[in-house]
Predict the 3D structure of the following.
Amino acid sequence: MNLNLADSFGINLNEKWEAEYKRIGHVYARWGALLVIFLFPLSTIPELSIEKTDINIWYAFRYGPSVVVGLVFLLHQKFKFSHELLFEVIALCLFTSAAYMVDCNDWMTYMISMVTVFITSAVLVILRPFYFVINFFAVFLIQVLVHTYFCEASVLDYFLMKGVNILIVVGIAAFSMAAFRYYIMKNNFMHRVALQEAHFELQERNQSLIKAQKELRFKSDQISEQNEELKMQKEEILSQRDAMQSQKEYIEKQNRDIIGSIRYAQRIQSAMLPTDAYVKGMLPNSFILFLPRDIVSGDFYWAAEINGKKIIAAIDCTGHGVPGAFMSLVGDTNMNQVVLQEGITDPAEILNKLHEGVCNYLKQSETENQDGMDAAIAVIDEKNKTIQFAGAKNPLVYIDDKQEINVVKGDKISIGGKRKIQNDESFTTHEIPFNSAYTYYMYSDGYQDQFGGPNDKKYLVGRLKKLLREVSVKEMNDQKFLLNKEFDEWKYGYSQTDDVLLIGFKL
């Protein structure tokens, strides 16, 4: 039977059995050798007083086996050769000596007793079946040789002896018993070792499982702790989310309130500005492109008719949004004061007075406030066919009947700030040709400063002048549409940079 559990337990049972077989065989062979060496000579003591035919032969057959076994035993101890060979020597020496001691008349009785001893020893001593057969025939051969020599009988006489055939049959049966015992012991040993190894393997696996279970329990505890931490973090996040939601709602409410206030301010600012009907009534052939960056604007336009003169202004206040809108209120209030109440119609004088009014209104001589505004003012006297212009940094552009661009620059000073008005710091009035074929434009810097286009650059004043020349041949409403369209396309994808104000008119 070949049990190989190397794949299951990492062992080879045949190798284990070989080692165990050698161990047991060495034990049996050693004890057998010691018995022959020490006990067999003792059995000769009763024979010492008996007269021997040949004393030398007697010593050789009675003490020689013990000497031979002793020498072979010493060699076996040193060289560790097969125990089967040692057992062969023991059996040969033992049965050779016994065969010599038998009387020829008692040979059959001896044979029966010797074979019985041999069978018994063969069954007790673990030998492979092959060595058992060798022992059996070797011993049998010794009996034949000794019997024929000392009993003057032939080999044929020996086999014709009564009971020999029976002994052969018994020997075969003994062989079967010995072989069966060998295989039974081998199988029992291999099963026992396999069970032991399986037991050890199961113990190791059980220990591994216990260790893995402990690790899993430890990891489970860690996961539980992490879950608790995550739960606490989740609760904290939810709490923060609720707080942020409350803040968001509060900010949104504040924003709605602020936007509502600014939209209301827009209504006030819109009410401050001249209506489209009023401007159209004063200058029928005109347009105003007004695009606040935010809800309210720092740019504003102003128009009035007094003493037969039509006055229109494009004013750009510092900043935009709410701060710019406040400044626009300051500018509108001062324009009403200077023109409508004081009756001043000279554009340069209007700007000078506007500068004084802004400085006084904002107490700029007493505070650090430096806010102000840029402006372009045109005064049209249709009776005398004159146009007067004055500018604070901002120009007036007109396109003549030859489609040439003409620029009347404003003075390089602003309205407001800590600037003392002296002779060289006052504004200048310019006389502009009065011609119904001309188109006149005034604007703030919001249009040309707008970023956009394919390279995210400013529109620039040169491009704006070129555009004004291109649209100047169109009707006023069409000009406004085209200017607005160009501006939207230029800033497409970008936020508006500043408030935009552009006024165009024809006489």
Q: What stands out?
A: Residues 8-204 form one domain. The two ends are 127 Å apart (CA to CA). The chain has two domains: 8-204, 273-505. The first strand starts at residue 286 and ends at 291.
